[in-house]
Each structure stands twice: as C-alpha cells, then as structure tokens.
Amino acid sequence: MEPMKTLEPKLPGTQFETEMQVRPDDIDMNQHVHGSRYMDYVLAARYDQMARCYRMPMEEFLQLGFGWFVRTAHVEYKRPLGLGEHFIVRTRVAGMAKHSVKVEFEIVKQKSGKLACDGYFDYTMVNLKTGRAEVIPDWIVAKYAI
Fold it and tell me: What is the C-alpha separation between 76 and 121, in angstroms, rounded?
C-alpha cells in the first residue's frame, strides 16, 4: 500500500480531547469493552470535536453535500476498558492529501492515565450525490489546520 502523501505546509496537528464513559451495552462476553466499540468511541469523539474544536459540525458538511468515508482504520489494543470506566479520546489531524485526512488517536484511561489503545483513521471526503471522492476545498483545509 502506498503511504499517504501530505500537503505542504504540514499541518500542526493540534490535539483535541473528548471525555467519555463506558456504557453497559459496550461490554462483551469477556466483561470488557468489545473491540469494535473503540472505533465507535473515536468516531463519536471526532463528531464532537468537529463542532466544538474545528467549528464545522458534521451537519454543515452534509448541508454542503460532503461526507467522510473511513478508508482505513488501524487500532492497536493495549489494555481493556471496563464497565463505567471514564476515558479520554485524543485525536489530531496528522496529515492531509488531495481527497483524504489522516487522523491519529489514542484512548486513555482517565483514572490511571494509561493507554487503552491507539491508532489512526484515513478518511476520504466524498460527494454525497455521486458517492465519489471529492477534492478537499482549501477553506476546509484551513479549518483543519489549527
């Protein structure tokens, strides 16, 4: 697989945080958070951060006819989260290319400060009418370059 090419200048990668808590329906038969939920946590945190930190909520993207498709998701699990546990999802834009954004993340146990998992998502901007990749406009690049 070809590595993601970044635009120049490289984005500063400001890190943002969202606090969350494990819910009962997140727990699997092993009595800890199911692996798929970690990806849900990152997606929920990005939804929050798009509105709160970047000042461009997902609803605004949808109104403009844009959406984000997860092209690649990579998660490395370090230690499990348990029922009721509070945690922090930290994300940062690590790079941008013509059609895509790479977002790195980590999920940290709030009480101990220990890493539960980390990884990255590569999102492709799509045109909702055509379902095809869309070039990310300069004004969106500017919003994400904080």
Answer: 12
Thinking of the domain 16-144, which architecture would CATH place it in? Roll (3.10)
Per-residue pLDDT of 17-64, as tens digits, reads 999 999 999 999 999 999 999 999 999 999 999 999 989 999 998 999
For 92-116, the DSSP string reads EEEEE-SSEEEEEEEEEETTT--EE
Instruction: Give the start-to-end residue ranges of the domains of the chain.
Output: 16-144
Average pLDDT in the 112-125 region? 96
CA distance 28 to 30: 5
| Cβ pair 117, 77 in contact under 8 A | yes
- At 29, is the secondary structure helix, strand, or coil? coil
Nearest to 47, CA basis, from 26, 70, 27? 70
Give the bridge partners for 133, in sequence order. 126
Percent of the chain predicted with pLDDT > 70 = 92
pTM: 0.87
Q: How many helices (H) and strands (E) does the chain have?
A: 3, 5
